[in-house]
Fold this protein.
Amino acid sequence: QKEVEQNSGPLSVPEGAIASLNCTYSDRVSQSFFWYRQYSGKSPELIMSIYSNGDKEDGRFTAQLNKASQYVSLLIRDSQPSDSATYLCAVTGGRDDKIIFGKGTRLHILP
Amino acid sequence: DGGITQSPKYLFRKEGQNVTLSCEQNLNHDAMYWYRQDPGQGLRLIYYSQIVNDFQKGDIAEGYSVSREKKESFPLTVTSAQKNPTAFYLCASSIDGGRQPQHFGDGTRLSIL
């Protein structure tokens, strides 16, 4: 059974600090990795995609991928109260190309 | 603007009734998906379709049915056989169903009367 694991949280981070969200996956041949943000009562919104090892930066967001360790993370710099949401990690491109979602990490930015 | 439109936003089902949730996309995506999300829970895949006139069961297909007669449309019917239908239903699409990300509609919240 292929899995994507995330700490459910809540993760509490002071405003202005760096929030670090982590995700591990079990299918070693996975190729594509995504982070979604989901506000309470709303649908998930794609915020980052990463396909190769290393870091990818987009504004205050940085996605980090380490395929050898089967680990993908999302860093949010200068955290704002508006970043408070659930963050879903998703992985695809494995043996059957099916996308697998983690259950999400709840992030709470403390004003 | 390209996107995924789900309707209605809220839906109420009576005992023994079938209800249909609409999902339309104008992104020219081949693949479409239906997920169910319960409070505080992750996404569970109900059905998916990678091409017109073809669809596959996901992890929790019992009590649900779908059709894919047009590329743009992937309606979900919640049948009376689904005894616990109260949930947030999300429709998504992706370019090719493989290694590309999925994009979501705004969702339909279904409740029992």
Notes: The interface with chain B takes residues 31-32, 34, 42-46, 49, 51, 88, 90, 92-93, 97, 99, 101-104 of chain A (CB under 8 Å). The first strand of chain A starts at residue 4 and ends at 5.
